[in-house]
Amino acid sequence: MTAPAAARPPRLVVFTDLDGTLLDARTYSAAPARGALARLAAAGVPVVFCSSKTAAEQRPLREEHGLTQVPYIVENGAAIIVPAAAGLALGEGGIAGADEGERVWALGRPFAEVKAGLRRAAAAAGVKATGYAELTVAEIAARTGLDLPAAARARQRDCSETLVDAWPEAEWTKLAAALAAEGLQAAHGGRFRTVTSVNVDKGRAVRWLAERYAATGPVVTAGLGDAANDASLLAAVDRPYLLAGRDGGWAEIGVPGVRKIAAAGPAGWSEAIAELLGET
C-alpha cells in the first residue's frame, strides 16, 4: 500500500543562481559541480535555474546538465517556464513557450516597455545608459567573456535589459529614482545590473514554483546564490546558502539563517549540496 502524502518524507527542491554560483564567474564552467549534479539527479531532486540569464541562454545549459524536464526562472524572475514533463499542476494561464509542451508565465513587463521606460528614465536622470540592445554581439562577448553564440543568446531578452555601465554609485542612485517613477528597478548582480518592472524578483518566482511543487506533496526548498540580487531567492527558501564572491567575501543580503560557504562558484556549490544531502 502506498503511504499517504502526509507520511512521505519531504522532497528536496533546489533553486540556484548561475553565474558565480553553479557556473564559474570567469569561465562559465560548471565542471567542479558535475558530481553534485549527478548525485541530485540520482536522488530525484529537481534543480531549478533562477538567474538573470535569458531563456535562450538557459536552454542549452539545461540540456547540457540533463535538466530539460525541470522548470526554469529567467531574467531575474521576470518569467517562469515550465515544461510539461515537470508534472506540476499549473491550472489556467501562461502562454506557449519556444519548446513543445512548455508554458511561460511572465511576471514582468515585456522588453519593449522596459526599454522605453529605461530610455525615459535615463533622460530624466541625465545619464547615458548602455544596455545589451546598444551593443553588438561582439561587444557583448568582449565585455562578458562569453563566446559569440552565447553572447547572441544573452541579447535575446523578453522582459528585461542588462546595463553594462560602470558609474559611480551616485549616478546609479539618480537612475534608480528615475526608474522607480517609470515602475522599473535595476538589480545588481555580480557584474552588471538588470532592469525589470518593480514587481519582479527571484523570490516571487521561487515562491510561485515552490507552491506548485508543494501541491504534489511535502517539500523542502534550498537556494544557492552569491550576489545581492539573490537575496529574495534565498529569503524564499527553507535552506539558504550564500557562496563567497570572487573576492573571497560575501554579499550583504540581510537574510536570516543563511549558511555562508567559503568557496566560490561551482566548488562552493558542490560543498553546499554535499551538506544538503547529508554527506558532510
Walk me through the structure.
With 280 residues, the protein is of the alpha/beta class. The protein folds into 2 domains: 12-107 and 200-276, Rossmann fold (3-Layer(aba) Sandwich); 111-197, Threonyl-tRNA Synthetase, Chain A, domain 2 (2-Layer Sandwich), CATH 3.30.980. Helices cover 33% and strands 20% of the residues. The chain is built from 9 helices and 12 strands. The chain has helices at residues 34-42, 55-64, 111-125, 137-144, 148-154, 169-181, 202-214, 231-235, 265-276; strands spanning 11-16, 47-50, 72-74, 79-82, 95-96, 103-106, 161-163, 184-188, 193-197, 219-225, 239-244, 259-264. The strands form 2 sheets. It has a 9-stranded mixed β-sheet, with helices on both faces. A 3-stranded antiparallel β-sheet has the order 7-9-8. β5 (95-96) and β6 (103-106) form a beta hairpin. The longest helix is centred in the middle third of the chain and has 15 residues, at 111-125. The radius of gyration is 19 Å and the shape is globular. The mean pLDDT is 93.
Q: What are the SSEs and their pairings?
A:
Layout (H helix, E strand, L loop, with lengths): L10 E6 L17 H9 L4 E4 L4 H10 L7 E3 L4 E4 L12 E2 L6 E4 L4 H15 L11 H8 L3 H7 L6 E3 L5 H13 L2 E5 L4 E5 L4 H13 L4 E7 L5 H5 L3 E6 L14 E6 H12 L4
Parallel strand pairs: 1-2, 1-10, 2-3, 10-11, 11-12
Antiparallel strand pairs: 3-4, 4-6, 5-6, 7-9, 8-9
